[in-house]
Amino acid sequence: MRSRYLLTFLLAVLLSTACRRSEGPQVTSSPTPTPETTEAGATGPGESAGVPSDKLPPYPEQIVPVEYSDATASAGIRFRHNNGAYGKKYLPETTGSGCAFLDFDNDGWQDLLLINAMDFEDAPRKRRSVMALYRNNRNGSFSDVTVAAGLAKPMYGMGVAVGDYDNDGWDDIFVSALGQSRLFRNGGDGRFADVTAKAGLTGPPAFSTSAAWLDYDRDGRLDLFVGNYVDWTIAGDLFCSLDGTGKSYCTPESYKGQSARLWHNLGGRFEDVSVAAGIADPTSKSLGVATFDYNRDGLIDIFVANDTQPNKLYQNNGKGGFTEVATTAGVAFSEEGKARAGMGVDFSDYDGSGYPSLIIGNFSNEMLGFYHNEGKSGLFIDEAPASTLGQATLLTLTFGLFFFDYDLDGRSDIFLANGHVADDINKVQPKITYAMAPKLFRNEGRKRFAEVTKRSGRPFQRAIVGRGAAYGDYDNDGDLDILVTTNGGPASLLRNDGGNQNRFLRIEATGVVSNTSGIGARVTMVLPDGSRLWQQVHSGSSYCSQSELPLTFGLGRNDRAERVEVEWPNGKVEKLGSLVANRHYVLKEGSGVAETRLYPMVSPSPAPATPSGK
Description:
The chain is mainly beta.
């Protein structure tokens, strides 16, 4: 998040040239028998779950535009982020905060969580600002239940990660913050309890940002990774200026970094294993984190996007520790060998290679990081400079971002939430603005993306100071909607209004031996035309945000998946039969399909939720 006001316009120029509405779930009995179970890696190449393949659904010749509309007001979302700014130009004012899709009450409908900050302790006036939990009313609207849920806690919140850390069937919430981050345990009765101290997660104050749940040691319990930014306090605030008189926001290069922390779950309590696991690094300035198996060895690795410092890739060694390999893997620096201002990050097998590639949001004049995973070599190549993605993102500053299949054609598309950190940037760089429109790129296959921002609806034409971003199907119509936060401004809920007749499958993985949230499970499906698709259930990614845990697979015009395989976090692989399109399947570890929900969904009569509904 580098404040590069003095970059010239000439540099920028030179670089730039180089519709199924619904109301709720209908449950039917499972059509699938108990699955066949094997060990991961027990079958040969091309046979086991997610084995490398370049088969993706055929690219359609005729494209039916998919548009988004702003559903914020009609959904009853009335949230505004408070960054605490009152003229002092404190660095945390620029960072904004994240958001999440989550089903906290287990009713099959995605709820919303919006993270908020607060006024600084030396502010002349104090406004009450807290995070906001919105319960899905299952009719396109939401109700603010923050107070009733016990979450109306003032804190300078930054990020959020959702996962069932105690395996009781209810997803819990971790909120990272400037100062003391918090863990809120879901009681299953609509209320959350602050169990930070009880869980052993208290520690020295930090500037915590993105976080993610993961089971790095495959013991069935979710561990927690927390990224930390810089060593900043009000007392230690520095004076930075462009003209020598007025104060400006300092670059993070002015401050020392803070080490990320890895917390090992002991069964309800956590211990800090950052040093023992090889994660501790006080030079890091972390803003984004992605947890994924980059080398396909069955172990979850950790990628960290750092600001003005080299990115980090922690390779899981399977012995409770990690080895940092970002430089040798080619993801530490830009193509020119420079550390960039990394913010949000996400992963996907966007080209059907079988291996997950990375996208990283960077500062303006740095373009998007678009690292293609070369497979068994363990190397990544940044393809942004020679691609449409690089050219179209040179002048943008990207925080939240993610891969998702917005048009359900079976290919991973890309969404970017953009916004600068300096409200006066346009004075020194005429081509760069403080507020920026989001961007949407459609995957055309053959490693090519086309920008479709201008034809994707009015919300994409509006400039905002974007920060957090997440995706989820809040109206249960099968396509993916978008939640975006802005720095010091309102949040936006963007509804996917469809536009094509592509089909889909939604998969919800519920662990039994593995963690109940299914985080780390890898789901692969083979379509009738031979296309092979896979996704991994994951926490974190984007910027300080959490997308929904259920997976949405676009099937194009296919009416089913011929077979489905699930590689659970403990390494077991279950093979299922054919699944019919336009349904939501709950897969229970060891039991196959435990529940099927049909589309279009019809809201059931209100009834108490139970853990078995996960």
